[in-house]
Write a structure and sequence with these properties.
Chain lengths: 529, 298
């Protein structure tokens, strides 16, 4: 009975999501012109093509993503903040304004244009109140305002105080010893909140925009930066009829109420519908693993990545049977990576994860599933887009996407070779098979299964991608073997439990011992999940 | 929380009692970069030792290349260097015309291998490619004998298996060792180990476009196949000047790449002529062989 109720509830949430998104698109149809941003083609390879406002004829297995698609999808991901860079007048503010007006109404969102100087506006302004105390202006956090807005548009973000901007983007502001949380309560869910949706914009820091500064790396890392396309020459007069007219907000929610029979305003429904948790598990074991193994190839010198993993393998008594050769392919990889301004940082992992889910969600919206189950292709596209955002201006994009595809092919091949079911990671599968074998036949069977899992991967590699990716998987399994041997008696005890309790016991053992070395958390966390 | 995979989906990964326990390698079989051995050009000029064979098998077929190479390995020991084409050319460039290097033709420990790049590793997918390999590669004495017994190509080269050739495109030799693969441009820029073990690749069309025969100096010096064969430009001018024909001033560079079927992966050893015959990739694999061995660091 309880299960049935939960299923019904989930279905309702998905239905609500569907109605919300469809109604939103319908509401904005006469207001926002579709500006094509990128196109994802899927087949043997995944390809991301930036459209710069110029759509292509539709072809099978190809998804066009517009600026509005990205904006709408971003509402469903609290960690996902978008930064548009583009020249004045291309529609950065207009598109976001229309979206926020429709969803949150004029009182439910805030637009601020930052400016430098002593009298410049502050990113904290929407959430603070300034009063005169004994003739001295005092700024305090206004906690009501902190939960008043569903969305914030920050224009000319690169002209503001970066520390204040970061606080707002991180959703926690600090003023005079007080702390404010920028979020909206989720009705019916005590203590749960929906984060503030933020879209930011900036003019490019070039000669034409002399007051604009390049956003520093800390700033760029907090956003996913898109170059806003200028679609005017392409769309031409079709844009003339698009205008903000009437009460979009009222139109949107009246239509939503008509379709769903649900009364109430955005505060009643939006936080529930756009709660990121409703989209389910973030990434599968397979996609998480791909993320783990691909970054060391596409974003770093594969020789160094291989060397680090080979070192771990050798420490664990496993000699790698392959290497990354200093050949022409290797040089091409380094050449492609040379176009990156800076390598991957911790935030990028989350960014790639969220972007993968965002792309998958956009595809789900277009296909009518309204789900966000990121596939390997979505992760590959996500990595490609994040890489692109890190390149120096004028870089030819194709070479980096080739690296991502090489990684994806190498990972696919490894997955296929070991016959691991779709959706699960290879390391995860080997470990779980070892636990089953150990539960049935003891610790030696556990260890032998781990080693059996490594053997087919420790063979000659055909490419730098294969060598790099295999080295990561093997090194992680070697770390797992080491952990298991060090804690043999505990592992043996865990293996004696019944059924899935074996995994629970192993998980508890891992949790209690992982602090012994950071290598355990770095290499085993995604296996145990 | 751990996401449990249904056991039946991963049962094939489980080790079961009675199954051979997986072995850890006792030695290191990693395709490690090959150990480069060096010897001076002086050592080749003044201390090279010849290994010649004109032996035939019981059916009257020439097997001298395999026999001479085997003798060179056997008698020089594992520490020795068998002269490659770049090494022989450098030696001839330095040696007086009275030196033994100018008195005879020699077989080089260099191979010219050809086939299709099925996966587009070096050239376009499905395109023919030529790799000139210096130092011990695929054609060991045993492999040459195997080629004799399996039958040679119509142009008398060894037939390779797909695996042998595909691995070579990845720089991996049947021994499990890995070698660097260079482009002709790399050679022009200069590589660190011109007398060592490596391969130089080029699209077959490039190689085929260079005629097999005698060439003027400018043609010879800029010929991609010549550059791949000599591994360094450093000694090429001096070699040309000493080797060129006394009257027409031309020097030979010979190949059969215009005749072969690239869909059959194949390889042959290269020869260095005693005079203006120059560099040869047309000699039969089933012919006489004459290699030169030099003691390491001699």
């Amino acid at each position: 009975m309880v299960i049935l109720k939960m299923a019904t509830k989930k279905l309702e949430q998905k239905e609500m999501r569907k109605h919300f998104i469809r109604t939103l698109y319908d509401t904005l149809e006469g207001v926002v012109s579709p500006t094509p941003y990128l196109e994802i083609s899927e087949g043997d390879n995944v390809d991301v093509r930036f459209l710069n406002g110029k759509a292509r004829l539709p072809t099978p297995n190809t998804t066009e993503v517009t600026v509005l698609d990205i904006d709408i999808a971003s509402l469903f991901f609290d960690d996902f903040h978008i930064l548009y860079e583009g020249v004045t007048g291309v529609g950065k503010t207009y598109t976001s304004d229309a979206l926020f007006n429709a969803v949150f109404g004029p009182d439910g969102h805030y637009t601020i244009r930052l400016s430098g100087g002593v009298l410049g506006s502050s990113a904290l302004e929407p959430f603070t109140t300034t009063t005169l105390e004994n003739g001295v202006p005092k700024t305090r956090i206004d906690h009501e305002k902190c939960k008043k807005y569903g969305a914030l548009f920050i224009d000319e973000i690169n002209r503001g105080d970066s520390q204040e901007v970061f606080q707002v983007v991180d959703g926690v502001v600090h003023v005079n010893g007080d702390t404010g949380y920028l979020r909206v309560p989720i009705p019916g869910q005590e203590g749960k909140y929906k984060g503030l949706a933020i879209i930011a914009a900036m003019n490019p820091a070039d000669a034409q925009h002399s007051a604009a500064l390049e956003l520093d790396i800390a700033g760029e890392n907090r956003f996913l930066k898109f170059r806003f396309p200028n679609g005017v020459s392409e769309a031409g007069s079709s844009q003339l009829e698009k205008r903000l007219s009437g009460d979009l907000h009222d139109r949107m929610w009246s239509e939503f109420a008509r379709k769903t029979g649900l009364k109430g305003g955005w505060r009643d429904h939006y936080p529930v519908i756009a709660d990121p948790e409703q989209l389910g598990e973030s990434l599968s074991g397979e996609t998480r693993e791909f993320l783990d193994v691909a970054l060391g190839y596409v974003g770093y010198d594969p020789k160094e990545t291989y060397g680090r993993n080979a070192e771990l393998m050798q420490m664990g008594g496993v000699q790698p049977h392959f290497s990354v050769r200093d050949d022409n392919d290797y040089r091409k990889i380094l050449q492609a990576q040379g176009t990156l301004k800076h390598g991957f940082v911790r935030r990028d992992l989350r960014k790639i994860r969220d972007l993968s889910r965002l792309l998958s969600f956009i595809k789900g919206v277009k296909s009518g599933t309204f789900d966000a189950n990121a596939s390997l292709n979505d992760v590959a596209a996500g990595i490609g887009i994040v890489l692109e955002s890190k390149t120096v201006t004028g870089t030819d994009y194709g070479a980096l996407m080739t690296l991502v595809n090489d990684a994806r092919s190498a990972y696919n091949e490894m997955h296929r070779q070991t016959n691991i079911p779709e959706g699960y990671g290879l390391r995860q599968a080997v470990w779980q098979a070892a636990v089953h074998a150990g539960a049935e036949h003891g610790f030696d069977a556990y260890l032998n299964t781990l080693r059996e899992g490594m053997a087919p991967l420790n063979t000659q590699a055909a490419s730098a991608a294969q060598a790099t990716i295999r080295s990561r998987v093997l090194a992680d399994l070697v770390v797992l073997e080491h952990f298991s041997k060090v804690h043999e008696s505990d592992v043996t005890a865990a293996l004696k439990a019944k059924g899935n309790d074996t995994f629970k016991g192993f998980g508890e053992l891992y949790q209690s011992k992982k602090g012994q070395s950071s290598i355990y958390e770095h290499r085993l966390e995604s296996i145990m999940r | 929380m751990t996401r449990i995979i249904p056991r039946e989906l991963i049962k094939h990964l489980e080790w079961i009692p009675g199954q051979q326990p997986p072995q850890r390698p006792a030695v290191n079989p990693t395709p490690q970069p090959v150990q480069q051995r060096t010897a001076s050009i002086d050592a080749l000029v003044n201390g090279g030792r010849e290994f010649f064979s004109e032996q035939k098998d019981s059916n009257g077929n020439y097997i001298g290349v395999a026999v001479a190479l085997q003798e060179a390995y056997d008698q020089m020991g594992s520490d020795a260097i068998i002269a490659t084409m770049p090494y022989l050319v450098a030696g001839k460039a330095q040696a007086e015309k009275s030196n033994y290097l100018w008195q005879k033709w020699f077989t080089a420990l260099s191979e010219e291998n050809a086939g299709i790049d099925k996966n587009g590793k070096l050239v376009g997918r499905g395109q023919p490619v030529v790799l000139t390999l210096h130092g011990r590669g695929i054609l060991t004495p045993e492999r040459i004998r195997q080629a004799y017994s399996e039958g040679l190509t119509p142009q008398n080269a060894a037939k390779f298996t797909d695996d042998e050739f595909d691995n070579l495109l990845n720089g991996v030799l049947p021994s499990g060792e890995s070698i660097n693969l260079y482009t002709v441009d790399d050679i022009k820029r200069g590589i660190s180990d011109p007398f060592g073990r490596y391969a130089v690749w080029m699209p077959a069309e490039t190689a085929k476009s260079k005629s097999s025969g005698h060439h003027s100096k400018s043609d010879f010096m800029n010929n991609e196949l010549v550059i791949a064969r000599v591994g360094t430009l450093e000694h090429l001018d001096a070699y040309f000047e000493k080797a060129r024909h006394s009257s027409n001033h031309n020097l030979g560079n010979w190949h059969r790449l215009g005749e072969i079927d690239f869909t059959q992966p194949q390889g042959r050893v290269l020869f260095v002529g005693d005079t203006s015959d120059g560099l040869s990739g047309i000699n039969y694999l089933n012919s006489n062989g004459r290699f030169v061995g030099v003691r390491k660091n001699a």
